Amino acid sequence: DDDVLALEDLVSILCKYGGLSRFTITDDVFHQRFPQAAHTLFGFKSWEEMKIMVQCLFPNTSTEATSSQIKATQDHMSIALPPLTSFEKCLNAKMLFEQDLTEEFLGLIFGKDRTWIGRVLKEWAPRWGKAREWLSTLDVTMDFFAAKEPDDAVKLGLRNRVLIDGIDVRTEVKRSDLTVQREKFSSKQGIECGRALNFTGAGGTSFEHTKFLSAHISEHGVLQWKGSTKIHEVDVVAWKNSASSITKQQIAALKLETAL
Q: What is the percent of the chain with per-residue pLDDT over 90, rounded to a whole number?
């Protein structure tokens, strides 16, 4: 019958014209039509970048589209969807982090209940966390820093500088324990936080960070606790006063250069 669509044609139409669903979220055609979707959903510049990153971080995870795995039932009256793939589970967790979605919302997209999505997140959230840890701690050398130093920094005499930036991130409020509340109170945020330091080279490359500690500890105290990483060739301790050693004239000149 000319009016009956083949399964392949139906899937193609759903992927090309349908909205967000299991059919479309891993489909190349959908992402070609909506090139901004990868950034909106997962925080990557493109869908290709997303797939390459997944293949690099999780080499045992196939990035094959779910739409290519759909089969017709034996009576050809319906379709049979495959179990949720590792790739789909991976994307579940990434969307949760990127868009702060609820488990219920993710369940609606993938046709699962909240409890099932919770089990997926329990598996994949730590894996993405570990991947982020790998990407935020780089094995850099002094030669690398010398090659990446901006010309403006060299002109101002700011050689081999490392910028140390304190970060306070809000945490859950522990109302039942006043001692914990005091230890985690951040004078910056005015609420309970965790405090960490981020180390960045003059060229803007963030290469190291501390673990989060209670925000009551001073940034200088966190730095003393961190000390040398003893993993990287760059000695953090040797540069601990790099920012404070800049004179007021150099700071003014740097601000002027930045403004220009």
A: 10
